[in-house]
Amino acid sequence: MRERFFELCDHGAARLRGGEVLLAHFAGEESDFVRFNHARIRQAMTIRQAYLTLTLIDGQRRDSLTLTISDGASEDRARVERALDELRQSLAGLTEDPYLLYSREPASSERVERGHLPEPAEALDAILSAAGHSDLVGIYACGPIFRGFASSLGHRHWHEVGSMQLDWSLYHATDKAVSRSYSTANFERAELETRIHDAQSALVHLAKAPKTIEPGAYRAYLSPAAVAELVSMLNWGGLSEQAQRTKASSLQKLVDGEARLSEKFTLLEHTAAGLAPSFDEVGFSKPASVSLIREGKHVGALIGPRTAKEFGLTANADGDETLHSAEIAAGALVSADALAALDTGVYVGNLWYLNYSDRTSARVTGMTRFATFWVEKGQIVAPLNVMRFDDSLYRILGENLLDLTRERELLLSNASYGGRSVETNLLPGALLRELTFTL
After folding, report:
1. Lowest CB count within 10 Å: 50, 195, 347, 427, which one?
2. Is 149 helix (H, G, I), strand (E, B) or coil?
3. What angle do CA 147, 317, 13 make, to 5 degrees?
4. How far, in Å, CA of 191 to CA of 314, rounded?
């Protein structure tokens, strides 16, 4: 795919006129997909797809068009030629973009990390053997993902990473289930089996009579999956330089120094350790990491190219100014001791349907779901019926954050609409002094 991509960019660049500039972005994958239900294979397929996005720039005008890349070299070259003709016609009717920004300095990079991924038969045997007679439902996806950027100015960036993900639930009955995932670039059968067996152990507790607690504030432990949902809310405009400059960030009080989070909380965008590429869609290279919150204090933001030009800054992120390789620093709590440290309270396995109930105060509401338990003296007593929580991130990640786990879990985005995602989260669990439940 790499050679085909660069060859098509060169083919288009050779047909430019005058001062035209061509940018080319590539996205592709070779993925094995399997859908499970009742611990049986219900759908299996291999997907090979590749998309080429061409951006034609003339002065301060630009337009883009995305093509599907085939196995026919001559057909693809003809598509590129037709695309350039279409883009020239559209550019004539467009207004100039005062914030147009793209990399004009040629640069190159290459990252190829296929990892150790299982053959389909090996992975399926491990999953089905461990699942046994459990009612397992989920999706398995595995294989390399490709990203690339090239230009008529001489850019040559290539990114190729391999990963696998099993995103599954074990069902007891009705809405009672344990939802888990296993994401990695280096497959270990023993680790996959351990995670499925741990989920089966949790499933036993779901057979107990469910408990309903009164609304109020309770001591709580959030699993890494639940913490990931809170990070998604931070990611919703909170960490964007554009949002912070226009006073629209959900973390504006933190940015302005009017509030702070716990000294135990440190968040960064760690591109070098994730699966996302180290370049954006207009050719700028990203730093290996960007510190955003350090020991509870605001220290940086995600800056896209347009924002960088508007405010005279240096870009360090994609244009959407969101996390793609989120990482929260580890704490001191040993994960195996989480229930003992919780003592009595709520163990939250997953959070769902989150939204802001008060954006200016970073107040978030959402639902517990799946394996959420009532714990007494470090022992699971009963599953909890679904509860709604409503609390501020300044409290959850601030005054009420007692500790984070020493072990962290790698969570890959399970988004696959149009293609597998390269977004990752490396997150610990969180022990809270209290979390407020409203109903």
Report:
1. 195
2. strand
3. 45
4. 41
Cα angle value 416/417/418 (rounded, 5°):
100
- 25, 27, 23, 28: which is closest to 84 by C-alpha? 23
Phi and psi at residue 196, to the nearest 5°: -70, -40
**Are 330 and 406 within 8 A, CB to CB?**
yes
Residues 6 or more apart in contact with residue 283 via CB below 8 angstroms: 23, 102, 103, 107, 149, 151, 153, 155, 157
How many Cα atoms sit within 13 Å of 259 on the Cβ side?
16
Cα(270)–Cα(329) distance, integer angstroms: 11
DSSP E strand boundaries for 38-155: 40-58, 61-68, 108-113, 135-151
Rounded to a whole number, what is the largest CA-CA distance in the chain? 75
Q: How many CB atoms lie within 10 A of CB 400?
A: 21
CA separation, residue 140 to residues 35, 87, 206, 381 (Å): 6, 39, 25, 32
Q: Is 18's pLDDT higher than 90?
A: yes
Contact of 139 with 35, CB cutoff 8 Å:
yes
19-28, 89-98, 172-181, 213-222: least confidently modelled range = 172-181
Residues of 150-165 as b/e, b for ≥16 C-beta within 10 angstroms?
Answer: bbbbebbbbbbbbbbb
**Segment 91-111 mean pLDDT:** 93
Q: Rounded to an integer, what distance in angstroms lies between the CA atom of residue 140 and that of residue 143?
A: 10
Residue 430 in tokens: 């969180």
> What's the whole-number mean pLDDT along residues 4-26?
97
Amino acid found at 82: R
Helix H or strand E segment including 406: strand 401-412
Backbone angles phi, psi at 79, to 5 degrees: -65, -40
**What is the per-residue pLDDT for 415?**
85
What's the CA gap between 123 and 33, in Å, rounded?
11
Predicted local distance difference test score (pLDDT) of residue 94: 95
